[in-house]
């Protein structure tokens, strides 16, 4: 009763706000493009359309009492709208509207089912659902430059066609993956915990307080997982046949380039499966996504015979490259195969390297003919290429020698005298056709089949060359060594199972890594299995005294997928034998039995109780999408990213909480 | 060269470990059932099968040199295996094997394509891939009682058919949902951040340290989100038309019954959409899942006309119940409609309630005829029903009156004299046909249309009655008031938008909630929109002085889906108007403008910049699955759950980290 009285009293007021919340419902499937597909050329003008959307362009006068504007509907289509002055009065960019009207073919166009741009909508009715009442940042008024929108207005950025398409693509490709894995291969998706155990060895983890009290009196912490590695291995021990998940992962390393504190990984693992089977699945996933997005217009390429690029039709086309070979040929385990710059090993020219550091007994060069004209050219190139920004990770710089005089040419070897001895420099320079104007970039690296400095100085230089904004260098490379246009994928296999530990405490001598003599770490992670024919070699190390040299020869069953010089993901066959895993922990990685139980007890228990052999993989989903969409950073493919300090400018996180 | 020498030297050793890692690869699709479908009755014995799996049953002798065991393959099928003594020597339960053999029809069976139990496999070859070398807990030797397996061996539990099926169902139903939302309705899935902003008002959040250092010197924290509510509303402001996500949510309330610190929510939101549209989608999702799992054998039911149960064929069949009506009829906003116990409001019998607390002016009873025989019966029933375990949440207890004598019958009202006055008790007892042996449970509750104590004492009692392990009560209810067998779903609508704040600081007087006079909180969350015809009433409150009584009459556009007395999920149409949202924050919820910007600035900004009207929903995915699979706790449907203290016994998290 009271309600009725109250209602009557206020019913006539505030029509404006009521209007905002009352609107006609649109059937989900009836947006413009669909309607265009359903009507024929003669009839489409008769049907009145109801459309929701935003004003993309401020109304402008076309003739007396006829105004034109553009509406972006909630599917991202742009539609020209025609109305009179009264109808479009006060309408602003980004106002949220509901309109009704009839479609007309534009005077200058022919009928086409395909292109909404050929049509315009004659307004019958317009209703403002939400009026922009904030000074929208001026550069957003056209939304043509989403890059300039401030991070705190990410939601405006996401309204633009580029980002709307990104969101759709990200969703659609996940579904392509799921349908393939679930429907064709019987994978099941399993969700694994995000509140995991802290393993202080990692040092890159985010700690979560168990108490909700800031002071966390209990000193109890969860940690957010860096990957579901241990969960998925346990799932294999749990009898799951084929597992996958789009998993959230966390790494507290905000100062590294193009990393996000949280990211998504397409994680998978199969029991009773080998690496070969996993690689087939992963290759197929990647190729399916690529073809779904690009069709046949822009397929993935790989290296065929003769190192010519060929289209990837099926996974088995994807070139397998050996770790040792790519380290020798490209100086990196994730070589950008689009780059035509070659590393020339000077061994065949009689170079004796290892002068400064005997382990580094290869001398190799990059030869760039006819690059410089004078001292200034050389200086600018050296300044760019050796810029300390490129070497923040303390990696070694190569030596750059510019040939500007006959002496520079005849005694080119002197520039490299510290690292290599070349007996007949003139013979070599003639052989390689060195000339005045050339630039030689040279460095030493470790023995073949035993390269752990990764990338090598020249491997790194191959990439740096192409990041330049120096016109001299850019023009030269574009003309003489243009990067291939094709997107090139390859597998990298036959990795060493262990790597020497680099001692970061000891200052590097001339930049060489200081290896801790006698101790090793897992090249990838300690759960990786060695190659089967290396089992005897591994067993010997576990039983007898460890011989570092022999240990480092052991190859693992790890495999990386690399596209355009970026590691898209990696995987391996894992250890499933309790004794072997425990001995590797104890003898090779120096983890005491007690500590093993503390850190990995769950996994070792499962190994003891009939865990099957298993293999798996993880694709960095954000990274893969950024390559696919040709974006420079993964921020562009994450709906709400953080900046490179881990700060979210939109939501204002993290925030300060004072401990009481 | 060195490698070759080393290999030769150790090649002959350690054949055992080599064996563990070498096995024949099975093509993914060729497991037993498939093969059975492909072969005919005459030919299946000729094909040798290769099968991976685990020993389910210790080999037993069937006749001289013929042993029998059971293998569980990695699809969960159980197969009888026949071999000789030598082949099965030393084989133990849960050993992980690869075997080869020929299928034979069992002597006592007829050929059938369907049932693997009709066949046995004659062993040709057996290889142990991983031998159990731990004392597997003895009760797991048959794996027939997974409930008894210790939490730390969750992986053994997951190997049992019950849990294997759960994992498959969880995955499959997610895919059913995705295909419906994406393929039929054009939803896109958007991933939202997990490192969110701390909003200390919540007090139930997990804090994540920004520093990786335990001491967290910066005092900067992220918080894990309790739901993606604000993200999804921002996505609506970002031009996303239809959003969904299986989202991870976190609540730091480990001491509440059947809660997990992390859980999964099927989260969705549509722009330019109303609650009606959302309810259609949600109802369809739930019904599709139910039918996928149960087929037509066990459909969902709802209330039809006359309150008879009817099958849910389509979403619009699902009964809409008003909040006010269910509070009056069932005393709870999530009534278990399977329970036939009725609450009798004594108003029609002339009862005058509100004696202790004038706001609580309804007196209602549950009448259980012919339940007790003597004082002992009454005592045991009272003890069970009023057990303080049920009332840990400080809710009020009803009064229980047992009728054992004529006096108890004639003056039954005296038991309730504190809360209600009944003028003619004998007239009423005759009317209701009260007899010696009956039990009357009675309590007062708030005025109709204004019930905020939820559940009411009798609403709560309806459920407690059916949780009893008291034979007397169980037998009585089973015989006289059996719970319906059907699973019953309903919508609850027309919730109050605001609720009075219960002052937990002040001690309750006789259990009644102490409402803070003059202050309210959002019944669901502060982003919920009111019903359109209540806008004038709301506006009045925002402009003039607040009148609590009028404010509490305002109904929201919130809707809950309830199955079998459990809230599966809730949703609403949201506020998208900046002024309205900000005024509600400021005037009704006492959030200053400054604090609004700090907490919700991102959302208020989006509202100012053309955010469309929008509505959404969230289904508690774990809870829904636990209802579907008829499990008592959500732990049963989570792959790696934590216990009710938030402790993970398998991984040992959280763990202690000493601050330095």
From TrEMBL, chains A, B:
It comes from the Eukaryota. The keyword Chloroplast does not apply. Residues 170-639 form the Aminoacyl-transfer RNA synthetases class-II family profile domain. Pfam families: tRNA-synt_2 (PF00152). GO terms for cellular component: mitochondrion. InterPro entries: Aa-tRNA-synt_II, aa-tRNA-synth_II, aa-tRNA-synth_II/BPL/LPL, Asp-tRNA-ligase_1, Asp/Asn-tRNA-synth_IIb, GAD-like_sf, NA-bd_OB-fold. One of its GO terms (molecular function) is aspartate-tRNA ligase activity. The keyword Cell cycle does not apply. Keywords: Aminoacyl-tRNA synthetase, ATP-binding, Ligase, Nucleotide-binding, Protein biosynthesis. GO terms for biological process: aspartyl-tRNA aminoacylation. Belongs to the class-II aminoacyl-tRNA synthetase family. Type 1 subfamily. This is Aminoacyl-transfer RNA synthetases class-II family profile domain-containing protein. It comes from Hanseniaspora valbyensis NRRL Y-1626.
């Amino acid at each position: 009763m009271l309600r009725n009285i109250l209602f009557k009293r206020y019913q006539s007021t505030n029509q404006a706000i009521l209007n905002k919340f009352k609107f006609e419902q649109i059937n989900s499937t009836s947006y413009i493009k669909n309607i265009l597909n359903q009507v024929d050329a003669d009839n489409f003008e008769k049907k009145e359309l109801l459309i929701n959307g935003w004003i993309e362009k401020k109304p402008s006068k076309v003739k007396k009492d006829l105004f034109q504007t553009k509406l972006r509907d909630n599917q991202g289509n742009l539609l020209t709208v025609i109305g009179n002055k009264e109808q479009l009065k006060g309408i602003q960019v980004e106002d949220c509207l509901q309109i009704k009207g009839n479609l007309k073919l534009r005077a200058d166009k022919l009928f086409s089912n395909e292109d909404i741009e050929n049509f315009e909508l004659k307004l019958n009715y317009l209703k403002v659902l939400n009026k922009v009442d904030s000074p929208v940042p001026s550069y957003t008024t056209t939304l043509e430059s989403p890059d300039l929108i401030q991070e705190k207005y990410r939601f405006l950025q996401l309204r633009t066609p580029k980002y709307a398409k990104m969101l759709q693509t990200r969703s659609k490709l996940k579904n392509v993956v799921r349908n393939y894995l679930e429907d064709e291969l019987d994978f099941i998706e399993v969700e694994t915990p995000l509140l995991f155990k802290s393993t202080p060895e990692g040092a890159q983890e985010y700690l979560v307080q168990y108490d909700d009290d800031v002071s966390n009196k209990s000193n109890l912490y969860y940690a957010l997982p860096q990957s579901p590695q241990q969960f998925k291995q346990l799932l294999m021990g749990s009898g799951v046949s084929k597992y996958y998940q789009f998993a959230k992962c966390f790494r507290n390393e905000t100062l590294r380039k193009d990393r996000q504190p949280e990211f998504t990984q397409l994680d998978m693992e199969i029991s009773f499966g080998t690496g070969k089977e996993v690689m087939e699945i992963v290759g197929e996933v990647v190729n399916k996504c690529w073809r779904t997005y690009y069709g046949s217009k822009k397929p993935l390429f790989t290296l065929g015979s003769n190192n010519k690029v060929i289209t990837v039709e099926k996974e088995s086309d994807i070139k397998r490259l050996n770790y040792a070979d790519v380290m020798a040929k490209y100086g990196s385990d994730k070589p950008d195969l689009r780059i035509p710059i070659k590393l020339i090993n000077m061994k065949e020219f009689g170079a004796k390297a290892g002068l400064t550091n005997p382990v580094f007994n290869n001398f190799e060069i990059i030869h760039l003919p006819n690059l410089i004209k004078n001292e200034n050219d050389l200086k600018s190139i050296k300044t760019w290429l050796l810029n300390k920004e490129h070497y923040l990770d303390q990696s070694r710089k190569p030596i750059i020698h510019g040939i500007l005089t006959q002496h520079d040419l005849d005694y080119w070897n002197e520039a490299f005298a510290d690292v290599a001895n070349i007996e007949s420099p003139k013979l070599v320079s003639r052989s390689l056709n060195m000339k005045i104007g050339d630039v030689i970039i040279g460095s030493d690296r470790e023995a073949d089949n035993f390269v752990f400095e990764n990338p090598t100085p020249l491997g790194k230089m191959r990439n740096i060359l192409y990041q330049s904004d120096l016109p001299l260098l850019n023009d030269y490379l574009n003309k003489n060594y243009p990067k291939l246009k094709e997107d090139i994928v390859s597998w990298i296999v036959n990795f060493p199972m262990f790597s020497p530990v680099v001692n970061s405490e000891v200052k590097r001598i001339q930049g060489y890594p200081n290896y801790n003599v006698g101790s090793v770490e897992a090249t990838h992670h300690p759960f990786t299995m060695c190659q089967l024919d290396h089992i005897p070699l591994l067993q010997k190390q576990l039983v007898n005294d460890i011989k570092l040299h022999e240990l480092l020869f052991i190859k693992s069953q790890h495999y990386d997928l690399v596209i355009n010089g970026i590691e898209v993901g990696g995987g391996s066959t894992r250890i499933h034998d309790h004794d072997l895993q425990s001995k590797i922990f104890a003898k090779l990685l120096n983890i005491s039995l007690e500590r093993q139980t503390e850190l990995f007890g769950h996994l070792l228990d499962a190994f003891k109780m009939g865990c099957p052999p298993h293999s798996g993989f993880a694709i960095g989903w954000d990274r893969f999408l950024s390559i696919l969409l040709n974006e420079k950073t993964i921020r562009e493919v994450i709906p709400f990213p953080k900046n490179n300090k881990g700060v979210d400018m939109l939501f204002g996180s993290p925030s300060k909480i004072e401990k009481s």
